[in-house]
Each structure stands twice: as C-alpha cells, then as structure tokens.
Amino acid sequence: MSRGRRRTVKGLVILGSVLAFLSVFAIWIERQALNTDDWVATSGHLIQDQTIRAAVGDYLVDQLYENVDVESELKEILPGDTKDLAGPAAGGLRQVAGDGAEKVLETSTAQGLWEDANRSAHEQLISVLEDKGEAVSTSEGNVSLNLGSLLTNLADQVGIGQGLAAKLPPDAGQIQILRSDQLKTAQNIAVAIKGLALVLSILTFAAFAAAIYLSREGRWVTVLYSGIGLVAAGFAVIVTREIAGGIVVDQLVKTESAKPAGEATWSIATSLMTSIASTVIVVGILFAIAGWLASPSGSARSTRRVIAPTLRHHVAYVYTGLALIVCVYFLSGPIQGLRSFLTALIVAGMAAFGVHELRKQTAEEFPDAEYAEVFGSTRDRVVGAVKDANIGERVGEQTSKLRLPEMKRPDSGGAEASEAPTAVTPVDEEDARLQRLERLATLRDKGVLTDEEFAAEKSRLLSGSGSGH
C-alpha cells in the first residue's frame, strides 16, 4: 500500500474504535433514559439492594414524621388516660418504624408499589421529553418520583395508617427528578440523543469495513487491529464508568451517610453499560481471532490446513452453523429494536464475508487437502517423534561402547596396554539423519513447514547439531 493509503487505514481503525466507545454510552442512555420498560426493570434491581432499601426506608420514615403529626394520631387511637403516653410512644414508634421500614420494602407488595412509582415517573418524563404536552409542560411543574403509596403502606405496617392517606399533603414522598426550568434542556438533549445509538453503531462498523477493504493484501493485519481497537474501546468504557461514578455521586449526593446508597444506585443503573461494553470486547476478540486465522504464522497456517477440507466439502454446514449462532444471539442476546437488529445483521454479514475469504485462502493454499492427509500427517509427526526418541537412545548406547586408548602404567614393566578400538560413526546415526531430512522434506511438501523453516532445520541437521550428539 502507498503511504497515503496506510494512513487512511490507520485513521479509519482509530475512528472506528472511538465511535465504538461513544456508541456504548449512546446505547446505554437510549435504553435507560428513553425506554420505560428497561428503567422499570433496573428500578426493581435497585430496591433489592440492601443499602438502597435502607436509604429509601429512612427517607420514608422521615417523610412520615415530617408530614403527619404522629403524636396526635396516637392520641386518637389510645384509650382514656393512656393518651398522655402518645408523645413517648411516637418517639418509640419512630425507632420501630425505622427498624421495620427495610423489612417492609422487602415484601413483594412494597416492591410492586416501588416499580409502579418508577414506571409512572418515567412515563411522565418521556411525555415531557417528547413534548406531548399531556403530563408536565416545560413552563410549569416538575418531574418527580411519587412514593406516596409506599409511604401509606409503611404507615399501615406500623399501625397508624387509619385515615392517613387523606391527611398526607400532596407533596409527601415526592423525589424530584427534574425541575421545570431544566425540562427544556432535557428535551433538547433527548432530541440529540434519540437515534444517535443507531447512527454511531452503523458508523463504527462502516469505518472498520472501509479500513479492511482498503487494506488489500494486508487485510488480516487490519482485521487484527480492528479487534484490538474494539477490545480497547470496551475496556475504556469500563474504566470511564468507574471514574465517572465517583464524580457523579460526589456531585449529586451531599450527605455522607447517603453516599453508599448513591454508589450502589450508580453501580446498578450502569450495569447495562458494562454489559454492552463486554459485548463490544467479545466482538473485538472475535475480530482478533479472525485476523490471526488469516495471518501467515505457522500456527494459523496449520489451523487453516486442518479446516480446509471442511470449508471445501461442507460449505452448507459452515454457513448453517454461522446462521445458527446469529439466531442464538437474537434469542438470548440483548436485542432492543432496530438498532440491535441492524447491528447484529452487520456483524453476521461481516462474519459471512470473513468465512468466504477464508475459504478462498485455504483453497489456494491447500487445494488437495483431505481429512485422511491432515490427520495422517499429525500421526506421522507423532510417530516420527517416537522414532527420534528411540534413535537417540540407540546412538547413546553406541557412543557409550567407545573407549579411549589405555595409557602405559609405571608398574606394568613397560608392557603396553591393549590397543583401543578405532572410533567410527555409527551407521544408525547416519540413517537417522537421512530419515530426518526425508521427514522434513515431507512436512514442507505438505505445507506444515515453510521453505524458510525447512532450510533452517536442514542447515542445523547437516551442521551436526541435530545428529544426537
């Protein structure tokens, strides 16, 4: 490739990695902020967390005592002279309510009320963001999470709930989500984000596809680095989530005692972000594997040789298996609307193109590869290794039989020792060397060894380093 084309390819790979990073955030915001069902499911996980339940329980108890004169309520309930005990009883009841609020929130009834309140608030928010003008306008009112029903349920559980709903003020148990002066800004952000996840996802794969197309003969390198870019983008999202979590909690939660609940809320609410990032990492790993498989390395070449017969004789099975993998992803993966459908379709299309290119490559490299030949060469290598071991033992035995000439001893009276046998090269050793040369040539002809590897092994063998000494 020319220098300009190489720079273009590198730029497209970097662009695709950045777009993948941004896509994860866009998808998360679209699904959490703009999808009511997803948010309700997340809210169900929130209330199941012990730290969050404790914080919500404390909030409800505080709201109960701030908005209702519990002492007066007890005076109406207590008979006769015991009415004077209403004050101390109210204090003790607050402690009881505080201890029991978390247990109340563990019940399915309370959790159902919590999810209903979250659904209502989110639907109200979506109505405002889409500017339907039916719930809350941008000029008046706020978007709030109404926990009034949970407040009443708690009062019933502690024994002072009779007629309490009518006495609670309308704003009791209201958690403000957006003020009216913030709604117009939220609408503008929603308009900008809506559809952005789809656009970024398509642009991500378009950038990688363009880079691969422009790479020509070096496509396997581009595929490999595209996979590395996707993996890096996924891990960058996870790191950013951890850093942003601390900043967001510090900015929004001012009370130290409430920060553990804020951290738990951030962790659960952004768990979908981690899931999406993990999917990006998995796709990146698949890209990297595809790049390696198409590379000229010895291990990749051996792998291609093994799969060559399958790719040539069972094309229908190969593509059927790929289709089944895509179907399993659709059935078990986080498919959400048009964006996920098109993303999965693009990935499947790129996978099918990769299989097509791999079939062409293996057909050119191993046009006559058959199952018997592939597995037969593996058997020959194993048998050859065993023979090498046996020959080495025999050569060792031959060498050990050789003796150095004996020297004259002073006390032998000048008698010379018996003459030592002449050292000769064993015939078996020469045969072993020839057998190895023949086996190396066979491995080269079958594609197991490259010409460079064959030449290096032949040189080493003929120089004597591979003769068993």
What topology does this entry show?
Layout lengths: L2 H31 L2 H12 L2 H18 L2 H8 L8 H20 L2 H22 L13 E4 L1 H11 L5 H4 L6 E5 L1 H14 L2 H19 L4 H34 L6 H11 L1 H23 L4 H16 L1 H18 L4 H29 L5 H30 L26 H19 L5 H12 L7
Antiparallel strand pairs: 1-2
Helix pairs in contact: 1-10, 1-11, 1-13, 2-6, 2-12, 3-5, 3-7, 3-12, 4-5, 5-7, 10-11, 10-16, 11-12, 11-13, 14-16, 15-16, 17-18, 18-19
Can you give a write-up of this model?
The protein has 19 helices and two strands. It is mainly α and 469 residues long. It folds into four domains: 1-34 and 197-295, no CATH class; 35-192, no CATH class; 298-367; 370-401 and 426-469, no CATH class. Helix 1 (3-33) packs antiparallel against helix 13 (271-293). The radius of gyration is 38 Å and the shape is elongated. It starts with a helix and ends in a 7-residue tail after the last helix.
Question: What tags apply to this protein structure?
Answer:
75% helix, elongated, disordered C terminus
